[in-house]
Vacuolar protein sorting-associated protein 62
Amino acid sequence: MLGCECFCWHDKHSDYDEFTPLPQPQPFSLPSPIPDWPPGQGFATGKINLGELEVVKITKFESVWSCDSLHGKAKGPTFYKPVGIPDGFFCLGYYCQPNDQPLRGYVLVARERECSTPEVYRDYDSDSDFPALKKPVNYSLIWSSDLDRNGCGFFWLPNAPMGYKAMGILVTDTLEEPDDDEVRCVREDLTEICEIKDTIHVASADPFQVWNTRPCKRGMCCKGVSVGTFFCSTYFVSENEELEIACLKNLDPTLHAMPDLNQIHALINHYGATVFFHPDEDCLPSSVQWFFKNGALLYEDGELKGKSIDYRGSNLPSGGTNDGAFWIDLPGDNNGRDNVKKGNLETAELYVHVKPAVGGTFTDIVMWIFCPFNGPANLKIGLMNIQMNKLGQHVSDWEHFTLRISNFTGELWQVYFSQHSGGEWVDAFDLEYIEGNKPIVYSSRHGHASFPHPGTYLQGSVKLGIGIRNDAARSKYFVDSSTRYKIIAAEYLGDEVVTEPCWLNYMREWGPTIVYDSRSELDRIINMLPFFVRFSVENIFDLFPTELYGEEGPTGPKEKDNWEGDERC
């Protein structure tokens, strides 16, 4: 499905002259201090046990080398050496980030754990007599910059001993090879494969690129831990290619750094976002119980008459797969249908799923919001805005956003904004806040996609100005998730801690499948347009998701890929 882009949102960063050095990025802090969290096991203690290794997050850096220009634009990167490493811990690699954003990143440093009872922290068979950390044999020079007003930068890959993996790249401002005591390599069975993620730098003259990295396998059951280092290369690297550096692996089965139930409530109370709906929204959210109480019906394939649903969802079929055997629909009478379509904001609440992320070094607080109805789409074609009658509408809508919390400190790190079948991660420094450290989420009109800022986001071709509008704005319609929420799942806490509601295990569709001839409606619009733009419009319409040409209710949260997996970007 096409992503959403905002065509009216202006870049907040001013343009610098190509030859004017950017000021050094300044550290970012959340608007308010982080509170003292309720006492627990290992959450927000500053250190995390990964099994044979213990790691600490370093956020203080010393600039080594900076590049001002990126293809003539002043937003090149700076490369940093971590400083303030605690005694006994060792550097695993250096950090890099663009110059046009606040200094807010981290690298992990590690030490070998002393443990008299290995079975406490090992869930794997390892009879290795080799240490977890070793110095590199030497270094290979990957690339060096030409001498300019910034000086020279030299990029070094640690050559790991046999059976060990390098975790990151080092940067120096002289040709002298780094000391072998500068960094440590990690025993291979304590690592996982990582992949490139975002491009940080592309050299204008040389075939040299820099990326940040992430574990290849991601999700609540995956063990890969991002070290926070970067990767660079003078040759083409594909997204799924195995790199010459690795990430760490969390081999502690207890996930001791994850928050307990009291800490989860404290995190939601402190960081819970306020969700604003559009001023013209007429398909507002409600609680699931309100939806059931106000006439929602359960249909079974082959049966003409629907059955009332218990307000707890206890008579919904539980488990199985989305096999089309059952579906939910609105009340049978017109008044009842119209009433339920509007939703009920007073009863609306966020349904919370808490799960480990990035190998248990982060906590994802996934907040699901339910709307009884998804309204029809609003098309934009150049200067024309056309409100469709049926295109895009369907019974029930499940959307979500995700708060990603650092388990080292309890700090809000990023927020994921779900946008139809995709979405985007936004760093904490690019969020809007309404009170203290509580971010704002803007829900788009009718489609309920989530966005970090108000505006009009186009799902289609921004260049041509053709696509589906996603309008987001602040209004009197909002839900404060810091107070109006219900925790529905946190599997890592055990079976008895959080009771899952009955409706959560309903795995079929929350709305009927209805096919209608919406293509004829689109064809009528195309015929109204000047001939020279018809071909472009037709091509854009062909790329629209199939659900726009009929109604198909969504499945519930537990059937989504991100329930166990990572978010889609």
